[in-house]
Amino acid sequence: MTTSVETRKRTPLSHRLAPWLLMLPAFLFIMIALGYPMLRQFIMSFQEFGLAQQFGKAPEWVGLNNYIAILKDPYFWTVLVKSIGFAGWTAALTMILAIVVALLMRAASPMMRTIMNVVLIVVWAMPLLASLTVWQWLVDPNFGLLNFFLSALGLTQFQGFSWLASSFWSFYLIASLIIIWASVPLASITIYSALTQVDDAVIEAAEIDGASYFQRLRHVIFPTIANVIALIGILQIIWDLKVFTHIHVLQQSGGITTETNLLGTYVYQVGVSQGNYGSASAIATIILLVTVLITAQYLRMLFKKGDA
């Protein structure tokens, strides 16, 4: 009898500890896989860490010198402004297209919806380097399909036109198209999943009350899925702010490296190409701070809803 009483007393504590114990393996994995590299990066940002340090020389502490040098560099601010503008542009277009595609999927027949899902998944699952190779062929100056069609329409100035090398504007145009094309599928599927949770009875009631389609979108559908749209939008900005592979591969195809650098390729060039890992770590830390500032408003919104 005493044993059963003791068991009942211990049960609440075990129930409280169970979620933490279940999360412990994932937490340890994240701390090892992500926490240590971030800590190492933060420490290196206060050090002079170059090629000599890679061959055994002890790193020298330089305090805030790396940060001061970066913040005084006009080129860093140029890259930062371009990166924020590029991320805002691509993320906004991605979200608009994703919402449109998700609404089309909701209104489509089951067969058409299945076809759209398959197409989106195939596009999303395509290896990045393979899709970039296809895009490189499309914009090739001499044999690209894009220049061929534009020339066939009578726009002879596009014969032999190099989209990746003529100016950073045309480079960013092609890069944004590629990033949007690769990002829309996941965003569309996620938003469509949220749309399936909207109560049809509420939409029908609004329709009976005389609400138009756009009024139903504005007052019924969008408020219901606003949190999902906000989450995907914030994540899209973060992904686009740190984009590297797309820009790097396009730069290797003839892009103007200095004028087309974004934060991801800038860190790579400072760290890997120039061997200045201390400055690269400082730039990466600044990118992290910018990312935190961007996500702060969304996190504040989540905490407010949690308190409510």
Strand content bin? under 5%
Approximate shape: globular
The largest beta-sheet arranges its strands as 1-2
Biggest sheet layout: 2 strands, antiparallel
Poorly predicted residue ranges:
1-5
Distance between the ends: 43 Å
Question: What is the chains' assembly state?
Answer: single chain
Q: From the alpha-carbon coordinates, what is the Rg to the nearest angstrom? A: 25 Å
Instruction: Give helix % range.
Output: over 70%
Helix run count:
14
The ordered H/E elements are HEHEHHHHHHHHHHHH
Mean pLDDT: 83
Would you count the extended β strands for me? 2
Structural class of the helix and strand makeup? mainly alpha
Short description:
The protein is an all-alpha fold and 308 residues long.
Question: What brief labels describe this structure?
Answer:
single chain, 308 residues, mainly alpha, two-stranded antiparallel sheet, 14 helices, globular
Walk me through what this model shows:
This protein has 308 residues and is mostly helical. Helices cover 79% and strands 1% of the residues. It has helices spanning 2-44, 51-54, 65-71, 74-107, 110-125, 128-138, 145-152, 168-195, 200-208, 213-241, 245-252, 257-260, 263-273, 277-307, and strands at 47-48, 60-61. Helix 3 (65-71) crosses helix 14, helix 4 (74-107) runs antiparallel to helix 10 (213-241) and helix 9 crosses helix 10 (213-241). The longest helix has 43 residues, at 2-44. It is globular and about 75 Å long.
